[in-house]
Amino acid sequence: MTASRLHRLRDRLRSDEGAAVVEFVVLVVLVIVPVAYAVIAVMSVQSAAYAVTQAARESARAFTQADTLGEARSAARLATRIALSDQGVPLRGDELRIDCDGTCLAPGTTIRVSVGTRVRLPFLPESLADSTVGAVPVSAEHLAVIDDYREAP
Q1: ∠ at Cα 67 (89, 112), nearest 5°?
Q2: How far is the C-alpha of 63 from the C-alpha of 31, rounded, in Å?
Q3: CB neighbours of residue 79 within 10 Å
Q4: CA–CA gap between residue 6 and residue 122 (Å, rounded)
Q5: Which of 33, 64, 80, 117 shows the smallest number of beta carbons within 10 Å?
Q6: pTM over 0.90
């Protein structure tokens, strides 16, 4: 090889042409994609947390305003279903739990309403959907007291 060819080859090897594209691709794949996924996952969990909090509060409110125990449980289930579906949280049927510290609709009774669900993380396969890796448990609890001046059922 001649000296001029060696100089041209050395200059080409030292040049930065095309390096920005490679750096950009590496940056996108290694940094931006995981950060975007984390943001989407956190938003999904936060939405479900808001939904179960709202569902617990509204279910307790609906329960305490009903006249009979059957109406109370039905109203609480409906309130749970509406609150969860408002935020796009899928319903399984076992989200709601109601506990009373005595006769459920008697004046002065404390009602504890718990709503819980599992949020499936986005873009994961079905095989991981119900595992501890593929879903995040989210729950909320609300206490309500039956009004002391309410007429006993």
Answers
A1: 50
A2: 48
A3: 23
A4: 54
A5: 33
A6: no
User: Quick one: DSSP state of residue 68?
Assistant: S
Distance of CA 71 to the CA centre of its chain: 29
Within 11-66, strands assigned E span none
CB 144 within 8 A of CB 61: yes
3-state secondary structure of 98: strand
Distance CA 28, CA 55 (A): 39
User: For a pLDDT cut of 70, what percent of the chain falls above it?
Assistant: 92
What mean pLDDT is reported for the chain?
87
What SS3 state is found at 114?
strand
In terms of C-beta distances under 8 Å and separation of at least 24 residues, what long-range contacts does 36-40 make, across chains too? 37/122, 37/123, 40/122
Return the exposure string of 20-51: e unless at least 16 CB atoms fall within 10 Å of the residue's CB, then b: eeeeeeeeeeeeeeeeeeeeebeebbeebbbb
The pLDDT score that the predictor gives to residue 145 is 93
Residue at 152: amino acid letter? A
Closest CA to 150 of 101, 103, 108: 108
Q: What gap in Å lies between CA 135 and CA 139, rounded to an integer?
A: 13
What tokens appear for 61 in the block?
Answer: 């409110």
